[in-house]
Amino acid sequence: MSREADLSPEYRHVRRLETDWRFHRGDLDDGADPEFDDSGWEVVEVPHDWSISGPFDSENPGGRQQGFAPGGVGWYRRGLPDDINRDATIRFGGVYRNFDVYIDGEHVGHRPYGYSTVNYDLSEVGVDGGETLAVRVDNDEYPHSRWYTGSGIYRDVYLIETDPVAVAPFGTDVRTTSVDCRGADVRLRTDVRNAESTAVDCELKTEIVGPDGEAVATARSESPVGANERREFEQRVSISDPERWTLQNPTRYFAHSVVYRGGTPVDDYVTPFGVRTFEWTADSGFFLNGESTTIKGVNLHHDAGCLGAAVTESALTRRLETLREMGCNAVRTAHNPPQPELLDLCDRMGFLVIDEAFDKWRYEGADEWFDEWWYRDLSAMIDRDRNHPSVVCWSVGNESYDHGEDEMIEDLEMLADAAREMDPTRPVTYGSPGWGDDTQSVLEKTKRVADHVDVLCCNYQEHWYDDYCAEGIDLPIVGSECRPFFRGSGDDPLAFVPRNPWYDVAEKEYVSGQFIWPGIDYLGESREWPSKGWPTGLIDTTGAIKPSGRFHQAAWSEEPMVFAAPIDPGRDRPAARSPWSWPPVSAHWNFPDREDSRGFVNVFTFTNAESVALYQNGELLGAQRADDFGPRPIEWYVPYEAGTLRAVAEEDGEVVAEHELETAGAPGRIELDADRETVTADGRDLVYVEATVTDGNGVRVPRADNEVRFSVSGAGEIAGVDNGNLDSDESWVGDTRSAYHGTCITVVRADREGGTVEIEAEADGIVDDSVTVTVEDEA
User: Fold this and answer.
1) What backbone phi and psi angles, to 5 degrees, belong to 292?
2) Contacts for 40 with CB less than 8 Å, ≥ 6 apart
3) Alpha carbons 122 and 14: distance in angstroms, whole number
4) Rounded-to-integer distance, Cα 330 and Cα 519, Å
5) Per-residue pLDDT for 597 more than 70?
6) Which of 684, 698, 670, 687 is closest to 756 using CA atoms?
7) CATH of region 278-525, choose from 3.40.50.970, 3.20.20.80, 3.20.20.190, 3.40.50.2020
8) Which of 131, 161, 481, 650 is an active site residue?
9) What is the band of 7 on the pLDDT scale with cuts at 50, 70, 90?
10) 669-777 has which CATH code?
């Protein structure tokens, strides 16, 4: 992450309502009654997802779509803080789904869509502190989604106190109108609302603060704001010699807006933004700040393995760090508005984003509310996310079941026009599937879609890109969903051609890039029981890069790398849809069935270097050039011997990377590895601790499935356990998990008081291990 100023509001009071929540699973007639006795309810912290606690069961009505997770109805209650003394707004980052909010029994608001950020003005019910906040969540109607959603208040809740005259929620719109070598011109629109019963004279001062914390530009405006009205202030400033927001150096500036009444500051609002330009072109791809930039992206769902849908910033950071290690530079938020922390991290870490609003529009249960709510939900996403420099495209939907039909095209036109009106600075798109009876019908539907979008997002259509250009579709093209190994052919977008779709990006200058489906394994959209999710991502639910994911690391990363991946037909793999699968590549050198007969092992080596030399037990087996294999990995047939297999990558005759596999013996011990040495005592920070079953020499035992028991003492608690096996029947919560391919993890959440937390792991018949992590008090 780049350096940046630490700037927080001074005059408004913002606090997160995390603790003191009580939760009841099931419906009640009087759950909103302030006199109701909730002392017997479960005490929880928000964010909270009750579905991940299970039980997962083949009879649960959500079925395969929800990964057989439970849903139902739940109630949350807590008291508002006692010290509210100004106008209060409560903000729900996301509640899944169909929720109602009450203050002291009075209904405040309702929202069907579970992914929108919603603000409720509590001044209308006259809160002054201590009132009972109650939230009813109804996730008991099916179908409502094609994948695991979680249930409950799964994103953060904020209480925001301001003066009656204040910047409205998400009330700033910061646009860089021009940039050159001398400076950047910035236009700011700020929505100030007056909740007083009389008009007031306002002054708005906006200061642009640079990454070093120093002011670089200032604007002032004065205007009366009528009683119970809103006034939009427009201001323009220039920034001399600005630092650009780039993927390598994602510098942010901050617009600090201060509202004055009678010369006295009464409210302020901080808006991070970036100075950058971008352009999608039909003939040369995507450009960021005038430089050609290949989009190397992934699709991400919002759950995170054993955490379910209740994902905090530290979990998101770890995911993005792993993706960045692979060379990934973009995310498509499939298929809903993400939690705001994800976009903030993409801004700070240098990722591009296609921000997506909906999936099937009028299907999967949305037909009951879509007409009434679509505009408010789309506006909620764009108003909230429009100042993020990472966001370079709005997607209004994905793969409507009536794709290409008249009603669908009317909906697409309606949504796309609305998005452009809300924000004319970014292009609008739709996740367009390759559906049709044959190639010609796909082309006709695609042309209809192309008339209403600015970027053609193609799901699984690499083999038709040239056809689209030949048909006169003059739009930027990006692969919005691409399979990780196979490519389509002829009339079949899901054919099994072993030519990786990446090469259609690498070989076609006009293609802006790709987004792999999926980047990370996710819950839901599973196969038959006991499958719990989609297992063909580049990264598994524990956060480990899979052997197959190393192909894309070689394709995307600029860091020299090589990875030896033997084909293991006996490797256990969760049930998956075969068109999205890879051959069964592995990361071990244990093939005892091949040893006596001198059988061969088929090995892929993934590299971004010129050539790879392969050694077995120190003996050179040969060297091969990557260019000789065209759009395929380097492939070997190795006469198996136990010991070591070492791949050595060379560039211009120099060794640039190595990767070695070693034959493992019998399980002998557990080795623990914490991904961080220090966490923050905030009740949210996480440390991921991997338990690996190794032999006496510290080599991972690839088929070890020992049941590992975790225990935690000190300043932390177990938040979940996982092993990456989406067919497992073990619970995501608890303290026990079996090793899968020799590993499993526990996720430990820090307490709110500093100290240390010790994590121990044991399994029958092998040596245990422990690790200690420091928990530091918040600064």
Assistant:
1) -60, 130
2) none
3) 14
4) 10
5) no
6) 687
7) 3.20.20.80
8) 481
9) confident
10) 2.60.40.10
Kindly report, as residue ranges, where domains of CATH 2.60.40.10 are found in the chain: 165-273, 555-587+589-662, 669-777
- In Å, how far from its chain's centre is CA 388? 15
Query: Binning pLDDT at 50, 70 and 90, where does residue 124 land?
Result: confident
Domain 165-273, classified CATH 3.40.50.300, yes or no: no
- Distance of alpha carbon 113 from alpha carbon 377, whole angstroms: 8
Per-residue model confidence (pLDDT) at position 6 = 74
Q: What is the pLDDT of residues 179-229, one digit of tens each?
A: 998 999 999 999 999 999 999 999 999 999 999 999 999 999 999 999 999
Write out the two tokens for 518: 């999926």
Task: Tokens for 173, please give them.
Answer: 């719109």
Asked about 399 being catalytic, the answer comes back as yes
Q: Which fold has domain 555-587+589-662?
A: Immunoglobulin-like (2.60.40)
Residue recorded with tokens 């995170």: 304
Catalytic residue among 207, 341, 399, 650: 399
138-171 tens-digit pLDDT:
999 999 999 999 999 999 999 999 999 999 999 9
The architecture of the domain spanning 19-155 is: Sandwich (2.60)
Return the half-sphere exposure (C-beta side, CA atoms, 13 A cut-off) of residue 601.
Answer: 29
Residues carrying CATH 2.60.120.260, the chain: 19-155
Report the chain's terminal Cα–Cα distance, integer Å. Answer: 19
